[in-house]
Structures are given as structure tokens and as C-alpha cells.
Amino acid sequence: MNLNEETQKKYLELQLLDQQIKQLQQQLMTVNQQIVELRRVDDDLSEFEKVKENSNMFFALGPGIFAEGSISSKDLLLNVGSNVLVKKPVIDTKKLINVQVAELEGLMVRLQEDMGAIGLRGNELQEELTELNTKKDK
Known about the structure:
CATH topology: Helix Hairpins
Radius of gyration: 25 Å
Mean pLDDT: 93
Number of helices: 2
Strand content: 15-25%
Distance between the termini: 18 Å
Structural class: alpha+beta
Order of helices and strands: HEEEEH
């Protein structure tokens, strides 16, 4: 393979690595947002635990939309898939959320490690390209 072909191949690989890093960054942002949302739900559940049964309160139905109702039970209904709902106490729901947060945090670590490995390969390619360009100039 001549120098021009090798240089083009390395530039192409570098561009592919750049695309992979951008995809990983997007995934990291998505996972981080999921963690933030789960932590917010965990905080809301902590507040819900303090509410006494048969208390009146407002329930959020959407952004800026609320309904008034009373709490007849502190058990929650969780969607476990295929539109199947299971009754769970608040404490079990909080445990489930904490497990999900831990799994997402583990995924974030793996994504960051992948980004680091791709970054290292990108640095190696840049050094190789510098050497190739030096050889071309001679």
C-alpha cells in the first residue's frame, strides 16, 4: 500500500472513531437524563411516604395539569411489561429504582471506558498520520 492510500485509510478510520465518540456522547447524555429522572422519582416517593392515608392531595397528570384526590392506599402500581400492573409498597419501589440507577451508572462507566479507548486509538492514528505526512514531505 502506498503512502497516499495508507493516509486515506487512517483518515477514514479517524472519521469513524469521531462518529463513534459522538454516538457514545449522545448515549451518555441519554443515560444521565434517565438517572436524573429516576432520582427525581425516588425523591418524590420519599415525599409520598410522608403523606397520611385518606389525605387529600393533587396528582400531576402532565406538565401544569393536576387532579385532586385522596390517598386510600400507599401501595403503588408498577408496570412490569405488556401492560401488566403489580402492586408494590413504596419501599420496594424505591429499592427497584435504586437498582435501576445502579445499572445505569454501571452503563455510564462502560460507555466512558469505551470513549477512552476510542480516544486513545484516535491519538494513535493522529501520531501515525503525522509520521506519514512527514514521510510524504521527504
